[in-house]
Amino acid sequence: MSWKLQVAEMKKTYITDQEVWNTLHHFFYHGKTKTTYKYGFFKALLEACITANEHNEISYDAIFYSFTKIYWNLVIEDGLWQSNTRTQPSSVQKEIETFAQQNAIPPHWNFEKLTDTQKIELIQKVKQVGKKYVIGALYGDFNGEIYTFDLKREYLQLHPKYLLFLQTYKRILTNVTNYQLALFLEKFNELEKVQSLLTKVEFITERQSLKAFERLLQQAGVTACFYCNKTLHSKTHVDHFIPWSYFQNDLLWNFVLACPTCNTRKSDKLAAPQYLNSLIERNEALLNQEILKDNLNHYNAAKLEQLYTFAENNGIGGGWMP
Q1: Which structural domain range is residue 235 located in?
Q2: What residues of the chain score a pLDDT lower than 50?
Q3: What is the pTM of this model?
Q4: Does 253 share its domain with 274?
């Protein structure tokens, strides 16, 4: 059985777009589902694929950061049951509930309210469960085509066709994943807990506060609105340059400081191409600041340009200017 595998190689080197679509269709609509794992892990993979290196490798820590955040917010913040039987909770649910109880975490706390130490500890616990039950299972769901993995080395190497496909159709795939996850949760949770369920699922990865990024950029010397260049005062907004609706990741190199007017008017749109060039120049300057290097992991200008194009292709409106 695939979920028991410790190491596995991709079974194909050449895959067509049609074959990927066929496999995804089977994954979403015909696969067996006892827990929400496959949807949660695929959602985390969509988020983490931005961290892939030049060899298309993604670390388990990157994937399970997103995976743990997703499950914490589903289980603790929203109180949602994660398996298809009321007598046996999923292993991840048990791990998270036990951790919350041992650390006296108040009910309905969002993941971002945990301390950094608590996050690291919990991610390691959830990762061990995921290594046992999730990584090999998803590999099997995709007929051994999607990635190579090694549980000991703790990395996935995505097939280049799948990596490009996930990035190209990220918005569509995220929406379908959210929908299927919501359908599962709706079946196995009490009525009062499934109110506005699709909205809850859509926003389980959103950060509660972006203040930390605001402070980092201010420490780096940013004092003016990225878009209109007016001096920023007390009411400063942190804007996802590539909108959150496509790029559901909180990474410093995609954040800019903006005045409230520009941030509100830009909303869920892409800024005009000249602002992309300005952001690339800004990020190059940040790379020279030792204090910020750890916050710019996995960044390069080509990746940012590619994401900008992918966002346009996913229907994010472009050309916005103040």
Answers
A1: 211-313
A2: none
A3: 0.87
A4: yes
